[in-house]
């Protein structure tokens, strides 16, 4: 009896790893969800690896520690506005952010309400419970009353005095000096403009510099496209022609890795797609029949050794899904392990 049992145990011990395979962690994992509804719009990553999240129809900038993502901590609020859009690091741990009024009910920006603000997080500290221990310093860089909307945002490079801000309507790129507040329309091109006859005046949306180019998305033109233009990296001026990289359906924002692969967030199909430097397109996560990144809006790479191949993807919770204007979940942050996709 004893011997038989031992044999059985030994056998089961031997057999079980084969019968029940090691559970492997999923390649895409939701790490945080805001209350429903929350339209998470954009993301930037601090040097310490924490994620900064902007929200449309919520005027607070939030910080999330992806290694302990139980709470999104408030960083700072903009009481004179209701929405935050693009965010970009301008100096180590100092960020510029597009702020303005936007209504999700009629999906319309409040003309003249947009401005670029500076948020200095070098002094910012919060507890593990999300309580602010030491505040960030927030200051206005400049209002741009001539801009109907300011959407995506990028620095020319860390330490540059200039940021480029996407004026989705009427489809221009603004240049702003973050020290003096001086601004002007820097780039104009047909590839930046909204699609003719589109009910949403939404042309250029995401903007990011990957030398020697400024890459940009145009959400709906030619069905939605990723484009680029070579620029002078000191001034932002175009040094060549605007061109289409791929035209592959409705697109919001994107992130570029060190090898020049572009990860785009697809508006209609709820996917993140990778565009290789050679122009091949493949789906990395999501799909029209999947909810993992439903309502995907933007993405950014981790900055730590452990998560440098993790793409953090934000969503609006599906508010623009097949059922119009219904939020299926609160906006989320999904961590996609690119080593496993
Ligand atoms: C902004 O989001 C936070 C966190 O979800 C929430 O507590 C707060 O009520 C929101 N504010 C508005 C104006 O919706
Ligand atoms: C945003 O809208 C609110 C409410 O209508 C208004 O009081 C505020 O002045 C607007 N902000 C800007 C920057 O125009």
From TrEMBL:
Pfam families: SGL. Residues 248-315 form the SMP-30/Gluconolactonase/LRE-like region domain. Transmembrane segments: none annotated. Residues 1-17 form the signal peptide. It comes from the Eukaryota. The keyword Zinc does not apply. Keywords: Signal. PANTHER family: NHL REPEAT-CONTAINING PROTEIN, NHL REPEAT-CONTAINING PROTEIN-RELATED. This is SMP-30/Gluconolactonase/LRE-like region domain-containing protein.
